[in-house]
Protein backbone atom coordinates (compact mmCIF):
# COMPACT_ATOMS: atom_id res chain seq x y z
CA UNK A 1 0.00 0.00 0.00
CA UNK A 2 1.50 3.33 -0.99
CA UNK A 3 -0.38 5.35 1.62
CA UNK A 4 -1.96 4.57 4.97
CA UNK A 5 -4.75 7.08 4.40
CA UNK A 6 -7.87 5.85 2.62
CA UNK A 7 -8.20 8.20 -0.30
CA UNK A 8 -8.26 9.16 -3.93
CA UNK A 9 -5.52 8.26 -6.43
CA UNK A 10 -6.15 10.23 -9.67
CA UNK A 11 -5.61 8.50 -13.00
CA UNK A 12 -3.81 11.45 -14.50
CA UNK A 13 -4.45 13.17 -17.78
CA UNK A 14 -1.67 14.28 -20.13
CA UNK A 15 -2.11 17.87 -21.33
CA UNK A 16 -1.02 18.49 -24.93
CA UNK A 17 -0.38 21.57 -27.01
CA UNK A 18 -2.53 21.92 -30.12
CA UNK A 19 0.40 20.66 -32.23
CA UNK A 20 0.32 17.36 -30.33
CA UNK A 21 3.39 17.92 -28.18
CA UNK A 22 3.15 17.31 -24.45
CA UNK A 23 2.45 20.43 -22.41
CA UNK A 24 4.83 19.77 -19.52
CA UNK A 25 4.12 23.10 -17.87
CA UNK A 26 0.42 22.26 -18.04
CA UNK A 27 1.14 18.83 -16.56
CA UNK A 28 2.82 20.53 -13.63
CA UNK A 29 -0.23 22.76 -13.08
CA UNK A 30 -2.56 19.76 -13.35
CA UNK A 31 -0.52 17.81 -10.81
CA UNK A 32 -0.76 20.77 -8.44
CA UNK A 33 -4.54 20.78 -8.93
CA UNK A 34 -4.79 17.14 -7.81
CA UNK A 35 -2.55 17.89 -4.84
CA UNK A 36 -4.61 20.92 -3.81
CA UNK A 37 -7.79 18.83 -4.11
CA UNK A 38 -6.46 16.49 -1.43
CA UNK A 39 -5.37 13.45 -3.46
CA UNK A 40 -3.59 10.76 -1.43
CA UNK A 41 -1.28 9.86 -4.31
CA UNK A 42 -1.04 10.00 -8.09
CA UNK A 43 -1.22 7.41 -10.87
CA UNK A 44 0.92 8.68 -13.74
CA UNK A 45 1.39 7.14 -17.19
CA UNK A 46 -1.93 5.29 -17.14
CA UNK A 47 -4.67 4.83 -19.73
CA UNK A 48 -6.11 8.30 -19.00
CA UNK A 49 -2.59 9.63 -19.58
CA UNK A 50 -2.72 8.12 -23.09
CA UNK A 51 0.23 5.89 -22.22
CA UNK A 52 -0.10 3.82 -25.40
CA UNK A 53 0.18 6.97 -27.50
CA UNK A 54 3.38 8.14 -25.78
CA UNK A 55 6.91 7.20 -26.77
CA UNK A 56 9.13 5.44 -24.25
CA UNK A 57 11.00 8.67 -23.54
CA UNK A 58 7.75 10.64 -23.19
CA UNK A 59 6.44 8.14 -20.65
CA UNK A 60 9.51 8.64 -18.51
CA UNK A 61 9.36 12.42 -18.89
CA UNK A 62 5.69 12.48 -17.86
CA UNK A 63 6.45 10.43 -14.77
CA UNK A 64 9.40 12.64 -13.82
CA UNK A 65 7.36 15.83 -14.22
CA UNK A 66 4.56 14.37 -12.10
CA UNK A 67 6.97 13.43 -9.32
CA UNK A 68 8.57 16.88 -9.50
CA UNK A 69 5.20 18.60 -9.03
CA UNK A 70 3.67 16.12 -6.57
CA UNK A 71 4.69 17.95 -3.37
CA UNK A 72 5.88 14.69 -1.85
CA UNK A 73 2.76 12.64 -2.58
CA UNK A 74 3.45 9.02 -3.55
CA UNK A 75 3.39 8.39 -7.30
CA UNK A 76 2.74 5.09 -9.05
CA UNK A 77 3.24 4.68 -12.79
CA UNK A 78 2.77 1.98 -15.41
CA UNK A 79 5.95 0.19 -16.44
CA UNK A 80 5.06 -3.07 -18.18
CA UNK A 81 5.79 -2.18 -21.80
CA UNK A 82 7.44 -4.68 -24.12
CA UNK A 83 6.57 -8.00 -25.72
CA UNK A 84 8.66 -10.22 -23.50
CA UNK A 85 8.82 -10.45 -19.71
CA UNK A 86 12.48 -9.42 -19.89
CA UNK A 87 11.61 -6.28 -21.89
CA UNK A 88 8.88 -5.41 -19.41
CA UNK A 89 11.25 -5.91 -16.49
CA UNK A 90 13.80 -3.62 -18.12
CA UNK A 91 11.26 -0.80 -18.45
CA UNK A 92 9.95 -1.39 -14.92
CA UNK A 93 13.48 -0.60 -13.72
CA UNK A 94 13.57 2.60 -15.80
CA UNK A 95 10.26 3.73 -14.30
CA UNK A 96 11.46 2.93 -10.80
CA UNK A 97 14.63 4.94 -11.44
CA UNK A 98 12.47 8.06 -12.01
CA UNK A 99 11.54 7.91 -8.32
CA UNK A 100 8.13 6.24 -8.64
CA UNK A 101 6.97 4.68 -5.37
CA UNK A 102 5.57 1.62 -7.15
CA UNK A 103 5.57 0.45 -10.75
CA UNK A 104 2.26 -0.76 -12.14
CA UNK A 105 1.98 -3.94 -14.19
CA UNK A 106 -0.80 -4.20 -16.77
CA UNK A 107 -2.57 -7.50 -16.18
CA UNK A 108 -3.31 -7.82 -19.89
CA UNK A 109 0.38 -7.39 -20.79
CA UNK A 110 1.45 -10.51 -18.94
CA UNK A 111 -0.69 -13.17 -20.65
CA UNK A 112 -2.63 -13.31 -23.89
CA UNK A 113 -6.43 -13.17 -23.86
CA UNK A 114 -6.73 -16.92 -24.55
CA UNK A 115 -4.26 -17.88 -21.82
CA UNK A 116 -5.42 -19.13 -18.43
CA UNK A 117 -5.02 -17.60 -14.98
CA UNK A 118 -2.40 -20.26 -14.29
CA UNK A 119 -0.34 -19.01 -17.24
CA UNK A 120 -0.73 -15.43 -16.02
CA UNK A 121 0.53 -16.32 -12.56
CA UNK A 122 3.38 -18.41 -13.96
CA UNK A 123 4.55 -15.41 -16.02
CA UNK A 124 4.24 -12.99 -13.11
CA UNK A 125 6.76 -14.89 -11.00
CA UNK A 126 9.79 -14.38 -13.30
CA UNK A 127 8.79 -10.71 -13.62
CA UNK A 128 9.01 -10.45 -9.84
CA UNK A 129 12.44 -12.10 -9.92
CA UNK A 130 13.74 -9.88 -12.73
CA UNK A 131 12.65 -6.66 -11.02
CA UNK A 132 14.43 -7.50 -7.76
CA UNK A 133 12.87 -5.58 -4.83
CA UNK A 134 10.93 -2.93 -6.75
CA UNK A 135 7.42 -2.40 -5.29
CA UNK A 136 4.82 -3.36 -7.90
CA UNK A 137 1.12 -2.94 -8.50
CA UNK A 138 -1.45 -4.45 -10.85
CA UNK A 139 -3.92 -2.68 -13.13
CA UNK A 140 -6.90 -4.38 -14.77
CA UNK A 141 -6.54 -2.12 -17.80
CA UNK A 142 -9.45 -2.51 -20.26
CA UNK A 143 -7.24 -1.91 -23.34
CA UNK A 144 -6.44 -3.88 -25.47
CA UNK A 145 -8.47 -6.38 -23.47
CA UNK A 146 -9.49 -6.63 -19.84
CA UNK A 147 -7.89 -9.37 -17.77
CA UNK A 148 -9.29 -9.57 -14.25
CA UNK A 149 -7.06 -10.80 -11.45
CA UNK A 150 -8.71 -13.32 -9.15
CA UNK A 151 -8.81 -13.05 -5.38
CA UNK A 152 -6.69 -16.20 -5.08
CA UNK A 153 -3.95 -14.85 -7.32
CA UNK A 154 -3.98 -11.47 -5.56
CA UNK A 155 -3.68 -13.30 -2.25
CA UNK A 156 -0.57 -15.17 -3.36
CA UNK A 157 1.03 -12.17 -5.06
CA UNK A 158 0.42 -9.85 -2.09
CA UNK A 159 2.05 -12.40 0.19
CA UNK A 160 5.30 -12.11 -1.72
CA UNK A 161 5.58 -8.64 -0.21
CA UNK A 162 6.26 -7.23 -3.67
CA UNK A 163 2.77 -6.49 -5.01
CA UNK A 164 1.38 -3.68 -2.88
CA UNK A 165 -1.16 -1.93 -5.12
CA UNK A 166 -4.11 -2.94 -7.28
CA UNK A 167 -6.37 -0.83 -9.47
CA UNK A 168 -9.57 -2.83 -9.84
CA UNK A 169 -11.97 -2.56 -12.79
CA UNK A 170 -14.04 -5.72 -12.29
CA UNK A 171 -17.24 -3.65 -11.70
CA UNK A 172 -18.45 -6.34 -9.27
CA UNK A 173 -18.77 -5.51 -5.57
CA UNK A 174 -18.73 -9.17 -4.51
CA UNK A 175 -15.43 -9.71 -6.31
CA UNK A 176 -14.10 -6.56 -4.66
CA UNK A 177 -15.03 -7.91 -1.24
CA UNK A 178 -13.41 -11.27 -2.01
CA UNK A 179 -10.17 -9.57 -3.11
CA UNK A 180 -10.08 -7.40 0.00
CA UNK A 181 -10.62 -10.41 2.27
CA UNK A 182 -7.98 -12.45 0.43
CA UNK A 183 -5.32 -9.77 0.96
CA UNK A 184 -6.07 -8.90 4.59
CA UNK A 185 -3.02 -8.35 6.75
CA UNK A 186 -0.73 -7.63 3.79
CA UNK A 187 1.00 -4.41 2.78
CA UNK A 188 -1.52 -4.05 -0.03
CA UNK A 189 -4.20 -1.63 -1.14
CA UNK A 190 -7.07 -2.12 -3.60
CA UNK A 191 -8.24 1.04 -5.35
CA UNK A 192 -11.62 0.79 -7.05
CA UNK A 193 -12.34 2.45 -10.41
CA UNK A 194 -16.10 1.89 -10.49
CA UNK A 195 -18.08 4.76 -9.00
CA UNK A 196 -21.47 3.02 -9.13
CA UNK A 197 -20.61 1.16 -5.93
CA UNK A 198 -17.99 3.60 -4.62
CA UNK A 199 -19.47 4.02 -1.13
CA UNK A 200 -20.04 0.29 -0.64
CA UNK A 201 -16.52 -0.44 -1.86
CA UNK A 202 -15.03 1.99 0.65
CA UNK A 203 -17.14 0.49 3.43
CA UNK A 204 -15.98 -2.99 2.41
CA UNK A 205 -12.37 -1.98 3.00
CA UNK A 206 -10.96 -0.78 -0.29
CA UNK A 207 -7.95 1.48 0.15
CA UNK A 208 -9.62 4.18 -1.89
CA UNK A 209 -10.85 5.22 -5.32
CA UNK A 210 -8.99 5.64 -8.61
CA UNK A 211 -11.51 6.79 -11.19
CA UNK A 212 -11.85 9.04 -14.22
CA UNK A 213 -14.42 11.17 -12.38
CA UNK A 214 -11.48 12.67 -10.52
CA UNK A 215 -10.44 14.31 -13.77
CA UNK A 216 -13.61 16.40 -13.61
CA UNK A 217 -13.96 17.22 -9.92
CA UNK A 218 -11.13 15.72 -7.85
CA UNK A 219 -12.23 17.49 -4.68
CA UNK A 220 -15.59 15.69 -4.85
CA UNK A 221 -13.94 12.25 -4.93
CA UNK A 222 -11.68 13.29 -2.06
CA UNK A 223 -14.74 14.46 -0.12
CA UNK A 224 -16.40 11.08 -0.66
CA UNK A 225 -13.32 9.19 0.52
CA UNK A 226 -13.12 11.39 3.62
CA UNK A 227 -16.81 11.21 4.53
CA UNK A 228 -18.27 7.97 3.13
CA UNK A 229 -18.87 6.49 6.58
CA UNK A 230 -20.20 9.51 8.47
CA UNK A 231 -23.78 8.90 9.55
CA UNK A 232 -24.46 12.62 9.97
CA UNK A 233 -23.70 13.12 6.26
CA UNK A 234 -25.67 10.14 4.96
CA UNK A 235 -28.06 12.29 2.92
CA UNK A 236 -25.22 14.24 1.29
CA UNK A 237 -23.25 11.06 0.62
CA UNK A 238 -26.25 9.53 -1.15
CA UNK A 239 -26.62 12.68 -3.27
CA UNK A 240 -23.00 12.42 -4.37
CA UNK A 241 -23.32 8.72 -5.15
CA UNK A 242 -26.53 9.32 -7.14
CA UNK A 243 -24.89 12.19 -9.04
CA UNK A 244 -21.90 10.06 -10.02
CA UNK A 245 -24.11 7.21 -11.21
CA UNK A 246 -26.43 9.49 -13.20
CA UNK A 247 -23.53 11.22 -14.96
CA UNK A 248 -21.53 8.06 -15.70
CA UNK A 249 -22.20 7.86 -19.44
CA UNK A 250 -21.57 11.55 -20.05
CA UNK A 251 -18.15 11.38 -18.45
CA UNK A 252 -17.05 8.34 -20.44
CA UNK A 253 -18.14 9.49 -23.89
CA UNK A 254 -15.29 10.95 -26.00
CA UNK A 255 -12.99 10.63 -22.99
CA UNK A 256 -10.43 12.03 -22.21
CA UNK A 257 -11.24 15.03 -24.44
CA UNK A 258 -14.45 15.75 -22.55
CA UNK A 259 -12.72 15.83 -19.18
CA UNK A 260 -10.35 18.46 -20.56
CA UNK A 261 -13.34 20.42 -21.83
CA UNK A 262 -14.88 20.22 -18.36
CA UNK A 263 -11.66 21.51 -16.83
CA UNK A 264 -11.79 24.43 -19.26
CA UNK A 265 -15.22 25.29 -17.89
CA UNK A 266 -13.59 25.37 -14.47
CA UNK A 267 -11.15 27.94 -15.91
CA UNK A 268 -8.26 25.51 -15.90
CA UNK A 269 -5.94 26.20 -18.87
CA UNK A 270 -5.80 22.96 -20.88
CA UNK A 271 -6.33 22.02 -24.51
CA UNK A 272 -8.88 19.34 -25.42
CA UNK A 273 -6.30 17.82 -27.80
CA UNK A 274 -5.84 14.07 -27.46
CA UNK A 275 -3.68 11.61 -29.34
CA UNK A 276 -6.23 8.86 -28.80
CA UNK A 277 -8.77 8.24 -31.53
CA UNK A 278 -11.88 8.90 -29.44
CA UNK A 279 -13.80 11.05 -31.92
CA UNK A 280 -14.58 14.74 -31.91
CA UNK A 281 -16.54 16.68 -29.34
CA UNK A 282 -19.83 17.22 -31.17
CA UNK A 283 -22.24 20.05 -30.28
CA UNK A 284 -24.45 17.54 -28.46
CA UNK A 285 -21.51 16.25 -26.42
CA UNK A 286 -20.48 19.82 -25.61
CA UNK A 287 -24.05 20.48 -24.44
CA UNK A 288 -23.88 17.40 -22.22
CA UNK A 289 -20.68 18.68 -20.62
CA UNK A 290 -22.27 22.07 -20.04
CA UNK A 291 -25.20 20.32 -18.36
CA UNK A 292 -22.76 18.26 -16.27
CA UNK A 293 -20.99 21.42 -15.16
CA UNK A 294 -24.28 23.06 -14.13
CA UNK A 295 -25.37 19.89 -12.31
CA UNK A 296 -22.08 19.86 -10.42
CA UNK A 297 -22.55 23.49 -9.40
CA UNK A 298 -26.03 22.61 -8.12
CA UNK A 299 -24.60 19.67 -6.17
CA UNK A 300 -22.08 21.96 -4.52
CA UNK A 301 -24.94 23.99 -3.07
CA UNK A 302 -26.20 20.94 -1.18
CA UNK A 303 -23.01 19.49 0.32
CA UNK A 304 -20.22 21.01 2.45
CA UNK A 305 -17.68 21.02 -0.36
CA UNK A 306 -15.19 23.75 -1.10
CA UNK A 307 -14.44 23.89 -4.82
CA UNK A 308 -10.86 24.55 -5.86
CA UNK A 309 -10.46 27.78 -7.76
CA UNK A 310 -8.55 27.06 -10.97
Topology:
Blueprint: E1 7-8, H1 24-37, E2 42-44, H2 56-69, E3 75-78, H3 85-97, E4 102-106, H4 107-110, H5 117-130, E5 136-139, H6 151-158, E6 163-168, H7 173-182, E7 189-192, H8 198-204, E8 208-209, H9 218-227, H10 234-246, H11 248-252, H12 257-265, H13 283-300
Parallel strand pairs: 1-8, 2-3, 3-4, 4-5, 5-6, 6-7, 7-8
Question: What are the main properties of this structure?
Answer:
310 residues; alpha/beta; eight-stranded parallel sheet; 13 helices; 8 strands; globular
Describe it.
The protein has 310 residues and is of the alpha/beta class. It is 45% helix and 10% strand. The model has no long low-confidence stretch (mean pLDDT 96).
Give a summary of the structure in a few sentences:
Helix content is 45%, strand content 10%.
State the total count of DSSP E strands: 8
Alpha carbon gap, first and last residue: 30 Å
How many strands, what sense, and barrel or not for the largest sheet? 8 strands, parallel
Strand coverage percent: 5-15%
What is the rounded Rg?
19 Å
Strand order of the largest sheet: 1-8-7-6-5-4-3-2
Structural category: alpha/beta
Spans of at least 5 consecutive residues whose pLDDT stays below 50 are: none
User: What shape does the CA trace take?
Assistant: globular
Average pLDDT over all residues = 96
How many distinct helices?
Answer: 13
Order of helices and strands: EHEHEHEHHEHEHEHEHHHHH
Q: Which bin fits the share of residues in helices?
A: 40-55%
